[in-house]
Amino acid sequence: LVIWLISLLPGMGTLTLRLAFRSMARQRHRMATTVLALCIGLLGVGCTAILAQNLKAEINGAAARDNSFNAIIFSGRSTDELTALHTAVGQLKGVKAAEFAGVSGRAVLSTVDGRPAQSTFALAAACAKSSKNTALKNECLTRFPNGIPSDINIQQAGGLMIGLQGRDLRAAGTLTTPISEGRALTAQDAGTNHIVLSGMVAPLLDAHVGSTLGYTVQGRTQTFTVVGITSRTGFIFALAGTMADTGYLQKIGALSSSDIENYSTTYLQIPDRYLQGDLASLRQYMPNAQVLDLSFITGLIGTWVDKFALFPEILAALSLFAGVVIIANAVAMNMMERRREIGIMKAVGARRRFVLQELLTETGVIGFVGALAGTGLAMVATAVLDNQFLRISVSFEWVVVAGLLVLGTGLAMAAAAITAWPASGEKPLTVLRYE
């Protein structure tokens, strides 16, 4: 139907275009097969390329949106190490903001609203596995009405139940925490037991704003009150599932400098022109500390996205190659059937360039239609996948879209040129004598 509608378009005063449309009308079934082959190939290539681009854009955008820092220092919490840390940061040239925080590595989430956290988590883990136990299934549906958790969620949440991350709420300005429920911690929460819980952990433990969490710290249970739950789609470079005030954690002994499981985390905001020089200075001054460049981390994630996308891109490229072969075969058969037509055109004065131009115009239109259909379907499929399954924002880089259109059209014309070039050079006398 599409090929037939295109064949009805006016030639716009161009003879080659008019002849191309007439030829498409005569061979619309073969042309439709060619368009379908090209469409399928570009659908695979387009989906993979656009999805990889969207994932990298989401990672980079979320990192910039949720974190205003671009460098992190991990070091110990002994008196000498903390003194060296403050001295090193104070000597840097371009630091716009610095936040000295810490992580209590031994703190373990033990209770949620008086219930044992481990038994509740064990139920979530059991529900994540397929089971023929009807009673367990009913309990899981009652416990998780919004959907039974997956094994991946269980593994991620399990690590976040250990550790408490302290932030200096009086000076914190390097973290913009995306909140799905409640509110973020502010300077008014300094010195209190208020915490923000990870959105990955909260639904598994039936925790909500106002819940009381018990953490085992230094052999004692310390209670905290949940004032906010982070969004599960945020890109928060947090080292523990729960964030609290550093001053309060020090008050209850959770950040003792004598405990080797505790360590300091320093968040730095450094302009790009000073970043690499400052990081080199930190590594030289503090050889035992770990200094990370967040932009390097997001770049590394982008590299892994490209690697994971490579295999489906190869498969899609093979299907696209098969489409090109089909186009070449279709054009070759077309040339055999149109030898008499080409001979007559050349007998009445048409030059080889005109014949070749008409054949390439015809295939170019077909290639563009197939590329347009494949790219359009890839955009629709990617938008549905991003919205419904990955829960990320949809974006299209028009350079990639234009590149897919040029790729499809160019491959179709190249395949046609291979077979059309010899046919356009046929001598009219040879063709007409044969006829």
Main structural class: alpha+beta
For the largest beta sheet, what order do the strands appear in spatially? 2-4-9-6-8-7
Give the N-to-C terminal Cα separation: 33 Å
User: Which bin fits the share of residues in helices?
Assistant: 55-70%
What gross morphology would you assign? elongated
Radius of gyration: 32 Å
Report the β-strand fraction as a percent range.
15-25%
- Helix-strand topology string: HHHEHEEHHHEEEHEEEHEHEHHHHH
- Give the tally of β-strands: 11
Number of helices: 15
Mean pLDDT, nearest integer?
Answer: 80
Low-confidence stretches: none
Main sheet, how many strands, which sense, barrel? Answer: 6 strands, mixed, barrel
What does this structure look like?
Helix content is 58%, strand content 16%. The protein is built from 15 helices and eleven strands. The model has no long low-confidence stretch (mean pLDDT 80). Helix 2 packs across helix 13 (352-390), helix 3 (28-66) runs antiparallel to helix 11 (294-337) and helix 11 packs parallel to helix 14. It is of the alpha+beta class and 435 residues long. Strands 2-4-9-6-8-7 form a six-stranded mixed barrel. It is elongated. The chain has helices at residues 2-7, 15-26, 28-66, 79-90, 117-128, 134-143, 151-160, 202-205, 246-251, 272-285, 294-337, 339-347, 352-390, 398-424, 428-434, and strands at 71-75, 97-112, 115-116, 162-167, 179-182, 194-197, 212-217, 220-230, 242-245, 263-269, 290-293.
